[in-house]
Every structure is written in C-alpha cells, then in structure tokens.
Amino acid sequence: MGVTCFTQEFTTSVAPSRMFKALILDSHNLIPKLVPQGIKSIEFVEGDGGVGSIKQTNFPEGGHFKHLKHRIDALDKANLVCKYTLIEGDVIFDRLEKGDVELKEEEIKQGKDKAMGLYKVVEEYLVANPDMYA
C-alpha cells in the first residue's frame, strides 16, 4: 500500500484561529449540525482529541459510504496545524483491498472540492455567528 499526501490551502475572511477551532478542534460537534445530509456524526472512538486519538466520521444511511476513521498524528494548536492519517473506511479501503489501486487526479480533485465546500459552509456559519469560536 502506498502513501499519498495532500495539502490544501484556502483564503477566508474569518480569523484562522476560529476556522481551526471549528474545523479541527470542534468538528465532531459542529460539522454534523451544519451538514446533516452529508455527515451523520463524528465521534472519538479512541482518545480525547489529542495526538493518537481516532476520530470516526459516520455518513447517513443510503449514501455511497458508511464511515471512515482518522488518526491524529500531530496537533499544534498554537500554530494551527493538524496532521492526520486515514486509517479505515469504505471510502477508499474497499478498493485498496482488491488490489493495486492508484488514485486518479480527478478523484483527488473531487475530494478536494468536497472539502472546499465544507470549508465554505463553516466559513459562512462563522461569519453569521461572529461570537462562535472567538
């Protein structure tokens, strides 16, 4: 199994610290409320959100995917950095188990576009609620 790394940056009018708190530190509470049609729940199955914790994202029934799990590898709140590894989930692992699979550029782009859509939803929420995560 190979390793693929992604980095994504975007510009926002919201303070980076607020975006970090909403998207990283409190995503398990906020994201399911903002996009319940896309994410049923997010919960820690190991740990409390620090390094080594495992976070499981559950998708609504009837969707293409059931769940995925991320392990938090590094968390630097002062510098707003979080590094994580996708360790389980039918999002990609079903394909990987069937053989030598290479992610196509279009699949990577689609994933980044979905992430950008989520960032925009959070940004809009924070603009409309300036006291949240301040």
TrEMBL record:
UniProt xrefs under CDD domains: Bet_v1-like
Domain Bet v I/Major latex protein positions: 1-92
One GO cellular component, as annotated: nucleus
Organism: Punica granatum
Superkingdom in the source lineage: Eukaryota
Keyword Zinc-finger appears in the UniProt entry: no
GO BP terms in the entry: abscisic acid-activated signaling pathway; defense response
InterPro entries assigned to the protein according to its UniProt record, in alphabetical order: Bet_v_I/MLP, Bet_v_I_allergen, Plant_def-hormone_signal, START-like_dom_sf
SUPFAM superfamilies the UniProt entry points to: Bet v1-like
UniProt keyword Repressor, yes or no: no
Protein's name according to its UniProt entry: Bet v I/Major latex protein domain-containing protein
GO MF terms, alphabetically ordered: abscisic acid binding; protein phosphatase inhibitor activity; signaling receptor activity
Alphabetized UniProt keyword annotations: Pathogenesis-related protein, Plant defense
Similarity-based family: Belongs to the BetVI family.
